[in-house]
Amino acid sequence: VSGLPTPELTWLLNGKPVLPDGAHKMLVRETGVHSLLIDPLTQNDAGTYTCLATNRTGQNSFSLELTVVAKEVKKAPMFLEKLQNCGVPEGYPVRLECRVVGMPPPIFYWKKDNETIPSNRERMSMHQDTTGYVCLLIQPAKKADAGWYTLSAKNEAGIVSCTARLDIYAQWHRQIPQPIKLRPGGSWYTNLTGQGLDIFPAFPTTESPMLFSSPAQKVVESDEL
């Protein structure tokens, strides 16, 4: 502002003078630039500001509107539930799950053995919802999927990570023995040995000395067998 004599400045908020205090300071530079410094700013500082310049010859003013928006709350990501070590048989689906919160909502990155997992990797899909639930679905799981998996959650306030081990077990299929076919006219022992089975090692002679005292001893067949 300029004028002769040098004008005095008054700051008004909604028509009422703004008084200097710990949060409001009026500054004047040597070049004649006047400033109203508000720090920290609160919702009470919102409104219409008028700068009024006055001297003996008159006055002049201008007004502006100051809108104070709520400060965005920022919180670093935090795990409510971390990844858990798990193992599944090969060929089965597996879910690596956890729950993460943060503000603004974090972005998630998955790694396997410290290598980033692309979002379009075969058999793997990544899921999340608004409650903070995050999931890596592998379907079906293969032996090569075993390893260490890391989930990182990042936003403007920070980053957190957790790691878990996934083991893939080989499937053990129970083999059902084929029924033994008896040759007509042969004894029970002869037919068993003909199938490659030796009944004597299965029953120690000390437990049944009368029946299995010698391989050459004749075995009496039972009708129940």
Automatic annotation (TrEMBL):
Keywords: Disulfide bond, Immunoglobulin domain. PROSITE patterns: IG_LIKE. The lineage of its organism: Eukaryota, Metazoa, Chordata, Craniata, Vertebrata. It holds the Pfam family I-set. The keyword Disulfide bond applies. InterPro entries: Ig-like_dom (IPR007110), Ig-like_dom_sf (IPR036179), Ig-like_fold (IPR013783), Ig_I-set (IPR013098), Ig_sub (IPR003599), Ig_sub2 (IPR003598). Residues 1-67, 77-167 form the Ig-like domain. This is Myopalladin.
